[in-house]
Amino acid sequence: MEFDALNKSGMTNLFSALGKSIELPQGIFYWLGRAKTEAEINATIGSAKGPASEIIDGGGDETITFYLPSMQESFGGLTSEETFPYAPILGLPELRAAWKGYVLHKLADARDRVEPCMTLPVMTPGITGALHVAAKLFIDRDEVVVSPDRFWGNYRNILERNIGARIETFPFFDGDRFNVQGMARKLLDTLQDQHKAVLVLNLPNNPVGYLPRQETVAPLVEALVNVVEESSKSLVVLLDDSYEGYVYDPEAAQRSIFAELCDCHRRILPIKLDGISKEMLFYGGRIGAMTFGLPTSLEVDRATLESELENKLGALIRSTVSNSPRPIQTAILKALQKLDITLAERQRVIDVLARRANLLRHELEKLDCPPLKPLPFNAGFFCFCDIEGLSAEKLADHLMTKYKTAVVPTESGKINGIRVAFCSVPEGQIPLLAQNIADAIADLTQKE
Amino acid sequence: MEFDALNKSGMTNLFSALGKSIELPQGIFYWLGRAKTEAEINATIGSAKGPASEIIDGGGDETITFYLPSMQESFGGLTSEETFPYAPILGLPELRAAWKGYVLHKLADARDRVEPCMTLPVMTPGITGALHVAAKLFIDRDEVVVSPDRFWGNYRNILERNIGARIETFPFFDGDRFNVQGMARKLLDTLQDQHKAVLVLNLPNNPVGYLPRQETVAPLVEALVNVVEESSKSLVVLLDDSYEGYVYDPEAAQRSIFAELCDCHRRILPIKLDGISKEMLFYGGRIGAMTFGLPTSLEVDRATLESELENKLGALIRSTVSNSPRPIQTAILKALQKLDITLAERQRVIDVLARRANLLRHELEKLDCPPLKPLPFNAGFFCFCDIEGLSAEKLADHLMTKYKTAVVPTESGKINGIRVAFCSVPEGQIPLLAQNIADAIADLTQKE
Question: Considering only alpha carbons, which residue of chain B is nearest residue A334?
């Protein structure tokens, strides 16, 4: 493949060395494709297939992918053809289309803006798979990736330990708001030494369950536009939208800022990363989706550009996992086909989490405990409390030992605090959880 | 983690630069682990959990991972807890133990030899995931990987395009036997420039459906031992056992040579890579397994060595896909728990494929078609025919256009031939398939 459209659009310049070089050879897929439409005898397919009657007593003449009938029992609601055959490298076409429809449903207010930019989503092994593929495509060893200073610990595994990049951070909050100016300054600093910058935004955030207020969205986008204008360089924005939809505050942005980033500037490339772990409460399913917001002003043939990009993504997926599991993809497709039921069922969970979040905020506010500084939270699965004047790890240990209360401490750079996963604590335990934290802090500070 | 045992055992020297540096920080897992046994209030878990009654009408008080009840319909034979929660990074413990038992079942004749060497299998996203993780751990950019000259096309994507290594080959056959001496010579050549060599063996092979005869196994292992003795260097052997068990010839080795490679030399490290795609006829399931045969003579504490190795593997998996899908793992576990039924069902498929393979061999032998040189085949899913004197791609095109018969051609280096996937061609079509190939060759050679 020549990648003329990627080159001409300037996108190639955003790629890592691997992203520039990698390519999925089309040879075998060319022959598989022709076989599908032209062949009467098809000896190209590397799966065992034949008449059902050959392997199943009472089976018919129809050609099936051979499988173990007793294995089907685990997938009672699916047919064997929905379960056992390989899925295409980039995902089931019907699921890709349905996920696109679902993203547009979520961003319905900005549909006219988003739709012309949006690529057909590509399925990956969970949000981790989406981050890994994006990182491989865009980020080189020793390159700086910009993130707020509160981020999911696995970013270090993916971006630093695996890719060899370096995460540089800005403080998440400016007072009780998302730190738009700090983000812009860090990006401009980074662009002094790099021809492009990659920004990762996880909103709602893990470990800080915070989503910026609606009024912050426009300034945030404007700040990013200023960054690329002022630097005359380019920006790739990886939107880790794992917790999209888990919002407990009417004043917060209710959905991904992918909508506003689409077509905000020809040198800003937003990439929306979704996961079913939280989105569909299917942690063990391991499907994620990558959707690009390609600026409409790129002066190349749109279909060619997208097929070249899909070749790059296909090469990365084929060379790491080949493809993603079919029965999970089928199950998600079925859930999207009855979206009203799916969203109604999910709303019950969101309502439970909203009650817990609001109760936890209320209980933390009631405490008279100066070393405990809960950061603002209004979304997602967690709240994070900075701890002043004592070690977060010592606190977590004491909380566990004396109060049988488990939290995850972080001591890293300037950050010293505990993550409280209200997502997994029943409402009835939340007042005691808050009180135990305060009591443990009192124990430790009185001792000193 | 200090990796003292890996260092002292010499295994670290076999690792790539990434393999040497990568590490999975234990912080969060330490706290999650303590929480499991010590906590009464557990605010560490990043999944939404609570009493079933909170999200399901008529649900009870028991704590569950929240899920979408209508999604469960696709997994009719599984409970929600078997479907929706995350699986551990390295796989479900019960499945890892059961897969170990299954490998030992397959290698039952060599159990006493294998068991002391064998690690607990680690679950990966299919055989591709297993190859990718192994490649990342052991192979550096620009390093030579040795393979027979007939190999699965995706090796180029994984090893060359993704990792940046270089595949160097030896001719698969010496006459009608596996080319043991050619393999040894290529390894010795490679070891002149490298401190270790990585060999990939895929037996039964894709695209050549060949498994060495039983009488070849001992000389093959002996040749590898001679290589490490003569060079005083080390060898990592990646056994791509995707097609293990699909054997149609009583004189062929009936199972993986992992058995013989275990403990054959302290500087030979065999790694067995399994997949459920073929093994359990579950292509779309995307689970594979990696099992190391650690020499018993390594003078380090065995449990420590294995836990350090698991840390490295965990870091690679966590930073690419996080973990593998739970419902698929559960389904495989259930299949292994009723192994007699599973293997009986699979035997019906093996019998079908054996009949096809034997018929295809017979039909090809009957043809009077000198340019067509079928390579020996006795196992797996494919046969491969070298083509002399005309382009394999032209032949495939003509076969498709005139005879509606689809095969996959290869023209690469010295190889010019067609892969015939008898696995997906019903028995009744096989005589015509063979005849069409001969007729197409006759058409093209008469024209010239």
Answer: B71
Assign B205 a pLDDT band (cuts: 50, 70, 90). Answer: very high
| Cross-chain residue pair A319–B162, CB shorter than 8 Å | yes
Asked if A74 lies within 8 A of B330 by C-beta distance, the reply is yes
Angle at A174 between CA A169 and CA A176, to 5 degrees: 125
- Return the CATH superfamily for domain B341-447: Aspartate Aminotransferase, domain 1 (3.90.1150.10)
Task: Kindly provide the ipTM of the predicted complex, given to two decimals.
Answer: 0.96
Alpha-carbon gap, residue A322 to B130, rounded angstroms: 11
Q: Do domains B93-337 and B341-447 have the same CATH topology?
A: no
Quote the pLDDT of residue B75.
96
Q: Which DSSP state fits B172?
A: S
- A49 with B23: Cβ contact below 8 A: no
User: Cβ contacts (< 8 Å) between B64 and chain A: which residues?
Assistant: none
DSSP-derived 3-state class of residue A251: coil
With CA atoms as reference, the chain A residue closest to B33 would be A406
Q: Using CA atoms, how far apart are residues B253 and B311, in angstroms rounded to an integer?
A: 34
Q: How far apart are CA B380 and CA A295, in angstroms?
A: 48
Query: Is the model's pTM score more than 0.95?
Result: yes
Q: Measuring CA to CA, which residue among B280, B276, B260, B256 is closest to residue B268? A: B260
Question: DSSP readout, A22-61?
Answer: -----HHHHHHHHHHHH-SEE----S-EEEGGGTSTT--S
Q: Name which CATH class applies to A347-447.
A: alpha beta
Contact B70 A38 (CB under 8 A): no
Domain B93-337 has CATH 3.40.640.10: yes
For residue A57, which residues of chain B lie inside 8 Å, CB to CB? none
| Helix H or strand E encompassing B216 | helix B214-231
Average pLDDT over residues A358-374: 96
Do B85 and A46 count as a contact with CB atoms less than 8 A apart? no
Give the best residue of B64, B102, B280, B286 to mutate against chain A (max A CB count within 10 A).
B286
Q: Which residues have a Cβ under 8 Å from the Cβ of B240 and sit 6 or more positions away?
A: B127, B131, B152, B200, B201, B202, B273
- CA-to-CA distance for A434 and A441, rounded, in angstroms? 11
Ramachandran region of residue B437, left (φ > 0), alpha (ψ -120 to 50) or beta? alpha
Q: Which two tokens stand for residue B97?
A: 């133990």
**Pairs of residues, one from chain A and one from chain B, whose beta carbons lie less than 8 Å apart:** 399
- Could you report the per-residue pLDDT of B57-71, keeping only the tens digit for each? 999 999 999 999 999
Is the peptide bond between B219 and the residue preceding it cis, with omega within 30 degrees of 0? no
User: What residue ranges do the domains of chain A occupy?
Assistant: 51-77, 93-337, 347-447
Quickly state the pLDDT bin for A1 (edges 50, 70, 90).
confident
DSSP code of residue A86: P
Contact A132 B320 (CB under 8 A): yes
